[in-house]
Write a structure and sequence with these properties.
24 helices; mainly alpha; 491 residues
Length: 491
């Protein structure tokens, strides 16, 4: 029973959610069939791990039906039926919880019900209150414009009910503007989705979104919007810059977008700032791999530090810290020598990581901290503790182990790892093209430099040639580390 779908779902609930779920199950309004509260109370005593050997059908049956004889098939089937019903009720609780947290959707439904019941004074009071508020966490996002569309449509219907044709027309026009802006943003953001698809080596297909965008003269549209002081212009222009950044990948567009966001930060809620600044971070990562080291590593750190201070490093307080983002923040700070910052970061934010990846990420973060402090033996110990259950670990750990083997002069281990990493890259389908090429080139130059290190005499001409080739290589992982090793050999 410990592995059934009900137990697996209950494991995911927080302590607060379990308390709320118990109230939900006990309510006759929500639980309209048989009473499932006794079953929940029986299971709750095994929360949160649900791993006790006592948790089986016989124990649950005897807890629910005192004095009755347990029959293997009949009794276990009864518990399975009750568990299935409780599972369905738990899913209803998830729906209810999500709706309860969706303030804007609740506002729309309430207004619509007040309108239908012709309680117009209350409708007007609530609508005025909504219009006076400016606490949209998702302000500036597609969801924000959809929510605004629905609010305008309910006011349109209210105006029509009251024969107010002027406001009926204006509301219909405004709702159309909101949904049109949403569609424009989606078209412009589709290039961002394509960039992510490229990073994860996913196939793309024909789609109506790209087709629609390809038939819009976006530059002319923006010119007219700017000329007419269109209130939606800053939003559309933001995503226009996002589109250009993804398609043209130019540094000047990055800085234009960054400055534009800085000037117009008040136009966006925290949720959308999280998305937009994540796009800037993604571009920084691409620039670092593509030979733009110092400047964009510092850009990364400033963006990461700013996101933590602004509280926009994740979508909401309830969500977990994304493991890839945590890895990127830890790695970036270690590379530029922000060791004290990294130590505080690990201590403060690692508890927010998903439980299944927390220990691995703590080990990884400490491993790179010791590596960049030149404490290679300590670093190697932490790397050896990492379970390679995520693709990012599979390549990260290999690259750092190669560097440690170089520093400690572990010759056999180094060459063995070069070969196994080459085989891994050739066999895996998870690596994007840019990652595949970057690591392949790293292995090539690593072998060349390590061979020179092992030789009795250092040939400066050979080192200069390797350095020239490294500098000219467009895509190369760990470029700065390779360059630093050449400089050391030339001394």
């Amino acid at each position: 029973m410990k592995d059934n779908k009900l137990i697996n779902l209950l494991k995911k609930f927080s302590a607060e959610e379990m308390r709320e779920l118990e109230k939900f199950i006990a309510s006759p309004y929500f639980s309209r069939s048989r009473n499932l509260n006794p079953l929940f109370k029986t299971l709750k005593q095994f929360y949160p791990e649900f791993s006790d050997e006592k948790l089986n059908f016989e124990f649950v049956f005897k807890s629910l039906y005192h004095g009755k004889k347990y029959e293997q098939v009949k009794s276990s089937n009864l518990i399975k039926t009750l568990s299935s019903e409780l599972f369905m009720l738990c899913k209803e609780f998830l729906i209810y919880s999500e709706f309860s947290n969706d303030k804007k959707r609740k506002e729309f439904y309430l207004l619509n019900q007040l309108r239908k019941k012709k309680i117009y004074k209350e409708f007007e009071r609530d609508l005025n209150k909504i219009n006076e508020e400016d606490d949209f966490k998702n302000k500036g996002s597609m969801e924000y414009f959809i929510e605004s569309y629905f609010l305008k449509t309910v006011f349109r219907d209210y105006s029509l009910d009251n024969d107010d044709f002027k406001n009926t027309y204006e509301s219909a026009l405004s709702s159309g503007e909101f949904i049109s802006v949403m569609a424009l943003i989606k078209c412009l953001r589709n290039s961002d989705e394509r960039t992510l698809a490229d990073i994860y080596n996913l196939e793309t297909r024909y789609n109506l979104i790209d087709n629609l965008f390809n038939h819009i003269d976006i530059d002319s549209l923006l010119d007219v919007m700017k000329k007419n002081n269109d209130k939606f212009y800053p939003y559309v222009y933001t995503y226009y810059l996002v589109h250009k950044l993804n398609t043209e990948k130019k540094k000047e567009i990055y800085f234009e977008l960054k400055d534009h966001l800085s000037r117009n930060m008040s136009l966006f809620g925290k949720d959308e700032l999280y998305v937009l600044r994540s796009i800037l971070l993604t571009f920084c990562s691409i620039m670092v791999v593509s030979n733009e080291l110092g400047q964009f590593r510092k850009e990364q750190f400033e963006l990461n530090d700013g996101n933590l201070k602004l509280g926009i490093y994740k979508r909401s307080a309830e969500e977990e810290f994304h493991v890839v983002l945590f890895r990127n923040m830890a790695l970036n700070s270690a590379v530029i020598g922000e060791f004290e910052w990294l130590e505080k970061f690990i201590f403060k934010y690692s508890p927010e990581l998903p439980l299944e990846h927390r220990e691995n990420m703590i080990n990884f973060s400490n491993a790179i901290l010791h590596f960049y402090r030149n404490e290679f033996e300590k670093s190697l110990v932490f790397f050896s503790e990492i379970k390679l259950n995520l693709f990012i670990f599979k390549l990260d750990v290999r690259q750092f182990q190669l560097k440690i083997y170089y520093e400690l002069n572990y010759i056999e281990q180094a060459y063995s790892l070069i070969d196994s990493t080459n085989h891994f890259l050739n066999d895996t389908k998870e690596a994007s093209e840019i990652l595949y090429i970057g690591v392949k080139n790293l292995l090539k130059f690593y072998r060349q430099i390590f061979k020179i290190k092992q030789s009795a005499k250092t040939d400066k001409a050979d080192l200069d040639l390797i350095l020239k080739n490294i500098s000219e290589e467009k895509i190369l992982a760990s470029r700065d580390w390779l360059i630093s090793k050449i400089i050391e050999l030339e001394k």
